[in-house]
Amino acid sequence: MSDVPGRYLELGLRLGRHVDGLVDAYYGPAEIKERVESEELRDPADLARDAAALLEDLDGLEERRRTWLRAQLVGAETVARRLSGEEMPYADEVERCYGIRPERVPEERFETVHAALDDLLPGDGSLAERFQAWRDTNTLSGDQLARAIGSLAADLRVRAEQRLGLPEGEAIEFDYVTDEPWAAFNYYQGGLRSRVAVNTDTPLTPAFLIGLVAHEAYPGHHTEHAWKERVLVDEGGVLEEAIFLIGTPQSLVSEGIASLGSEITLGEEEQQVAAEHVRDTGVPFDPELSRAVSEAAQPLGGVSTNVALMLHEEGRSEDDAFAYLKRWGLTSDKRAKQGIRFMTDPVWRSYITTYTDGYRICKAFVDGDPARFKRLLTEQLTPAEIQAAASG
Question: Which range marks the domain in which residue 38 is found?
Fold first, then answer.
């Protein structure tokens, strides 16, 4: 039996000791993790060489696993090289880590979005102020927030079970936190269990909540991790799937799955379902307006890709990037500052592209078919394979 999967787990765990959060989830053999944690910290340059050596040792595995591991190892090697201080062109870094080269979005596309939003959100103040007010007011908090999330999760779980199936024994616990840079985070714990942390510092509106629960829980991150643990690791013995590494193509595919989740389970009902679950909270919510605004604003996700390219390809200043993000993304000062902080982090700077590119390729691949979405949940597929299948 090939020792490559075990060596891959060791490599990922060793990289994770350098950056908190780089190992997003691990549910492989405990003895491997214990051994790595007891070692002296390995130099990132050595880990880059380990990744390169693993790339040369894939012949003992079946083709499907070789293809997937090859893409993963290129990403892991790139992370190690960056951790060692090596500089490389930003677009090359993103492509090596996530399998898709970032492309700038023409501002004309954003102008079209702004014109549509201007019609949908009449009133006083600038478009940015009106858009921020629509997005960040009428929020839920406290008990009403927990009730809404609980009922949404239960509803989406039933719908995911009906359309996609769920592995028996899976479960989620929701936790409410503060002082975090994200709105929510799925901590997959193995054993088909997740803890989803929700940041109550973030404005949590009905329109936002339905996407959040679908993204983190059903049929998003939790559902993907649970299915892959059951089908690939437990039943298939595909040990390399027992670690989830940031900086690799599996992250882009996972974000694509999660971002597409509400569409595949709810379709055009999404906003009506959100309205049903907040009706007794007293929080005003117009599902038709929310649907129209959400659809119109969707292309603004490309603003962040442009900002990252400005910073890392064009050498523009953070002040320029901040102004661009505020103007075209219609963001508040607080959101723009958080975005710039994320996009200038040495390790995380390339991750911003996973949301838009992951959604784009997964949406084209699925094309509204739940069976194809189930393939994303249960198979080892690289971004290159997903794009080829979608175009073919």
Answer: 4-87
